[in-house]
Amino acid sequence: MTANIPTVKLLINGQFVESKSTQWRPVVNPATQEVLARVPFATPDEINAAIASGKEAFKTWRKTAIGARARIFLKYQQLIRENMAELAAILTAEQGKTLPDAEGDVFRGLEVVEHAAGIGNLQLGELANNVAGGVDTYTLLQPLGVCAGITPFNFPAMIPLWMFPMAIATGNTFVLKPSEQDPMVTMRLCELALQAGIPPGVLNVVHGGEDAVNALCDHPDIKAISFVGSTKVGTHVYNRASLNGKRVQCMMGAKNHAIVMPDANKEQTLNAIAGAAFGAAGQRCMALSVVVLVGEARQWVDELTEKAKTLKVNAGTEKGTDVGPLVSCAARERVEGLIERGVAEGATLVLDGRQPQVPGYEQGNFVGPTIFNGVQPGMSIYDQEIFGPVLCLAGAATLDEAIELINRNPNGNGTAIFTQSGAAARKFQEDIDVGQIGINVPIPVPVPIFSFTGSRASKLGDLGPYGKQVVMFYTQTKTITSRWFDDSTVSQGVNTTISLK
C-alpha cells in the first residue's frame, strides 16, 4: 500500500539518499488526511555519516572566500523568489496554513537569506593600531565547525532559513533536522540551496525524533545547536548539549500578552488582535494568546467576538480562508481538551470554535476562533501554551496592573500595547520584562538586521537567531596581538614584566 507513496530523502554529502531505516512516519495533509509522503527516522549510521560529511567539508568551506559565500546566497534568494508559489503550495499541503500565510512563511525566511548575502559586512573583526609601542591588536571571527539545527512544524520554511543560511555564510557546515510532521518544503528549500551552489557536505539533512535529537546533542563533532520548539524539548536539548560542551540557543514556549488601553484606535486594534490570535490557527510561538483589556476597553468584548465570527475556517488552499486546520488530529484533540478545561475551571466561553462545519473537508483538523473571557492565572488555558486559535481575555483597572500581570507570567517571548498615548507606550516598554515589544504592532518579530530576542522562560542561551547576535553565535573570536621588528629596532633586552610598552 505504501509502494506508491513518495519517500522523503536524507541529504548527505550533496546527495539525496534513501534511508535504510525500518521506522517511518506518514506526512499527512491536515485538511484531508491524505498521506503525502513517508519520512524516515534516520539510523545512527546515517546521522553519523551526515555529521562526518559536514566535518570533512568544513576543511575547505572555512577557507572559502567570504565573497564567494555571499554570492551563493545572492543566487539562493533569487531561486526562492522564482519558486515561491511552489514552495507555498507544498507548505500548505503538509502544514495546513493558508496559501498567503505560507508565502509569508517563506518570505520571512527569505529575508534572512538576503541578510546572509551581506555576510561580508557582518563578519568583521576589530583593529586597534599601536596599543603599545609598535603593538597592534585585532580580532578575527572564525567559524566553529559542524553546527546543527532542530526545527518545529509550525514554520517549516522560515525557521530552517533562520538557521542554516547564517551558519553556512559564516563559514560553518550544517546538519539540519526538520520536523518529521512537515519536512517536504524544507527539503525543497535544500534542493534549491544546492542549486545555488552550496558544495557537497556543507548542508546535510537527517530526519527523526528523540533519538536523532539526542544524537546531535551528544556527537563530539557538533559544535553548536540551534533549536526552536516546545519548552519541554528545548530544555532537554539545552541541558544535554551544553553538558557536552556545545553552544546552544533554544527558542521555546510562549504566552504572549497584549494590553489594550481605552484610548486605542478601536477598529485597528480589533483587527490586529483577531489576526494575531487566530492567524495560522494560532500555531505561532508569537501568536497573541492573551489580551488584557484596561478600563473601559473591557467593554469591547462583544465587538471583538463579532470580528472573530467573520473569519472563514476552511482548507488553506481555498480562496478567502482565514483559519486553516491544525497540523494533526492529536493537535486538534489537545486544543479541544483545553477548551473543555477552560469551561470547567470557570472561564466564560464567549465564542466556541469546536467542530466547525467545513464542507468538503469533513476529515480536517479544524478548530475555529475561540474566545474566553474572565481568564485568570491558575487556569489551564492561561498557564499553558494552547497553540490553537484560542484567545484568552483578562481585565485590568490600570496600566500598572496590566504590566504586573504580564511580568508575573514566566514566559517572555513577545508582548504588545495598543494605545495612542506616547507616555503609556514608553512606560510599557521600560517596565515590561519581555524580550520583544510591539507598540500598536501585534506580532513584533524583528526584521533580520536585528535579532530575535525572546527572554526568560521562552529562551535558553545568550544569543538569538539571525541578525548580529547569530553571527556571534556561529563564530569564535580570536584575538591577535602582534609586534613586528625590523633590523633598525634596538633591543630592549629581557623584559620579565607583563607590560607591552
Short summary of the structure?
This protein is an alpha/beta fold and 501 residues long. It contains 16 helices and 22 strands.
Structural commentary:
Its EC number is 1.2.1.27. This is methylmalonate-semialdehyde dehydrogenase (CoA acylating). Residues 16-480 form the Aldehyde dehydrogenase domain. Belongs to the aldehyde dehydrogenase family. The chain has 501 residues and is an alpha/beta fold. Helices cover 37% and strands 22% of the residues. The protein has helices at residues 44-61, 66-82, 84-95, 99-116, 119-122, 158-169, 184-196, 210-218, 231-243, 266-278, 301-309, 329-344, 380-383, 399-408, 422-431, 467-473, and strands at 10-12, 15-17, 24-28, 35-40, 127-132, 135-143, 146-150, 173-177, 203-205, 222-228, 247-251, 256-260, 288-294, 348-351, 370-373, 390-396, 411-412, 414-418, 436-439, 455-456, 459-460, 475-483. The strands form six sheets. A seven-stranded mixed β-sheet has the order 14-15-16-13-12-18-19, sandwiched between helices. It has a six-stranded mixed β-sheet with strand order 9-8-7-10-11-21, sandwiched between helices. Strands 5-6-22 form a three-stranded antiparallel β-sheet. β1 (10-12) and β2 form a beta hairpin. The radius of gyration is 25 Å and the shape is globular. The model has no long low-confidence stretch (mean pLDDT 97).
Features:
six-stranded mixed β-sheet; single chain; Ald_DH_CS_CYS; Aldehyde_DH_dom; alpha/beta; 22 strands; 16 helices; seven-stranded mixed β-sheet; 501 residues; NAD
